[in-house]
Amino acid sequence: GINAEYGDKCLKDLWRDGLVEWFISKEEVQEILATCQPNTFILRFSDSMVGGISASWVHVPEGSQTGEILHLEPNTHRGLGYISLAERIIGLPDLKFLYPNRKKTETFSKYIQAREVGTSAYVRQNISVSLDLPNRSS
Q: Each residue of 65-76: b (16+ CB within 10 Å) or e?
C-alpha cells in the first residue's frame, strides 16, 4: 500500500545517507556507546529480525550517575508504514544525538513528510511513540 511504499522510501533515504548502520552487532554497538555521552544512539539493522531496524542508546536513569545501554524493539516494515523511522526518532526524547554527535532534530527533520494543511471539517490525529523503560529499582 501507499504507507508501506512511503516507509520503504524513507528507510532507503536514511540508509543511503549513512544514518543506519548495516553490518554491526548489538555487542559492537554496546562497546561503541559505552564511551558516549548520555542519550547518544545508533540505528542499525536488527540481528534477530530480518529487515527490522533498531536503535540502541545510552540511558541514564533518573537519579543515577551511571548509564546503561538499552535497545529498542526492532521497528518492522509494517510499523514504519504508519509512522516513519525519522518521526519515531524525533518523537523519543531519550534519543538526542545520533552517533557520534549529530543532533537528531537537525539530522532527521528533512526525512519527515510534510502534512497537507487544509480546511477539513475533521480534527487531525497524530500517531506518536513512547518508551516503556524497564523498572530497574531493586
A: eebebbebebbe
